[in-house]
Amino acid sequence: MTGINFVQWFVNFPPELATGIIAMLPIAELRGAIPAGLVMGLSWQQAAFYAVIGNLIPVVIIVYVIEPVSNFLRQRVPIFDRFFTWLFARTREKFYEKHAKWGDFALVVFVAIPLPVTGAWTGALASWLFGIAPKRALPLISIGVILAAIIVTALSVGVVSLF
């Protein structure tokens, strides 16, 4: 039995598209997309640009559809009720103190920190859990994504230049 080689799969795409798709993934987001774009031959500007765009696409969808989708699934499928209960509790736990201290601006900081489980996907979910309206959440998350892109690009270019 052989596993799927995702790196090989992305080699078949233009690097701009591959970078954008990787940035859309919930675990990798732009933290994985920017280094991948650089490895695929994009300039740092291109890698950052396509990663930011790719990272923001699911955010727009999440911010506007999380409530109706979660309500629908929770009412009809018990395992989704347990999953969303766990996910919402985890997100509240990670974000509550920051939100209490910084208010809505905490969303920018939370998304900008280039660590696992602090990206745009979790920020979009946190915005809904803390009642931040989509029209306010999207600019805050966007600023956080751009700051994360600057940090990740600087670190990636610095690391790449060492080799």
Automatic annotation (TrEMBL):
Keywords per UniProt: Membrane, Transmembrane, Transmembrane helix
Residues passing through the membrane, by range: 47-66, 105-131, 137-162
InterPro entries: Sm_multidrug_ex
Tagged with keyword Nuclease: no
Protein's name according to its UniProt entry: Ligand-binding protein SH3
Pfam families referenced in this protein's UniProt entry, alphabetically: Sm_multidrug_ex (PF06695)
Source organism: Candidatus Kerfeldbacteria bacterium CG15_BIG_FIL_POST_REV_8_21_14_020_45_12
Domain of life: Bacteria
Species classification: Bacteria, Candidatus Kerfeldiibacteriota
This protein's record includes keyword Iron: no
